[in-house]
Amino acid sequence: MKRSIWRPLIAAAILIVTVVAFVIYFVKHPEVRHQLAQTSPAVLVSLVCLDLIGIVALAFVTIATLRLCKAKLRLHESLLLTMYAAIVNFFGPLQSGPAFRAVYLKKKHNVSLKNYGVATLVYYCFYGGISVALLLSSTLKWWLLPLAGIGFLCLWLITKSNRLRPRLEQLDLRGWYYLAAATFAQIFIVTIIYYLELRTVQPGVHIWQALVYTGAANLALFVSLTPGAIGFRESFLLFSQHLHHISDSTIVAANILDRAMYIVFLLLLTLIIFATHARQQLGVQKDD
To answer: What is the pTM of this model?
Structure first.
C-alpha cells in the first residue's frame, strides 16, 4: 500500500481512537461534566468572538507573508481566503488549508509556490519560536524578554548575511517584522482563548500556566495529521503537565469546550461565506 494511502488511514485511526477516549473519559469522570456545566453563555459568545478576531489576525499573517514574496493582497480578499482555508483545513483531508491557500495565490496572483513555501517556513519559524518561548516561560519567566530580543537580532543579522543572501534573494525579507508582529498577535489571541477556557473550567489557573499550555498546544500543530490537531494537542498537553501543572480533568474539559466552540465558529464562517458569496468573489471552482 502506498504512503499516500497510509497517511489518511493513520489520521482516521488516530481521530477515532481520540474521540472514543474522550467519550470514555467524559462518562467515567463526572467532575468534567460538572466543570462544563458551569460555563455561562457569555463565555461561549466571547470564545466565538475571539475566534473571529483570530481569523482577522491570520488574514494579516497571510498579507505579511505575501510581502516577503513581493506580492500584495487586500484585507478583504485575505479575510475571505483565510475563512475559506480554515474550513478546508478542518474538513478537508490532512489539513489541506495551507495547500489550498498556496494554489489559490499561484493561480490568482501568480505567486511562486517555491517562494511562498519559503516565506511560509519563515512564518513557521516565528510561530514555533514564540511557542517554544511560551512553553519554557514558567522556567525562564522575565528572561524571555532579553532572549526574544537576541532572537530578533540574530534573525536580522541572518537577513544581512552575504553568505545566505543568494538563497533568500527571491524574498523581500526587509519586512520580516510585519510577519513577526502578525504572528505574535495571532498567538496572543490564541493565548487569551485558552486562558478563558481554562479559567472557565478551573478558576484557579494562573496566567503563567496558560502561557505554557498555549506553547504546548501550538507545537502540536507541527506534527498533527488530524483536523485541529485532535489527539495530538491533547497528547502534547498531557506530556507537558510537569511544566504547566494543569490537571487531566481540566485539560479534557477545556479541550471539549474548545472543540465544541470551534465547530460553532466554523459553522458561523460557513454562513458568512455563503452570505458574502465568498466562493464567487475568490473565483474558486469545484476543481480547486
So the answer is: 0.80
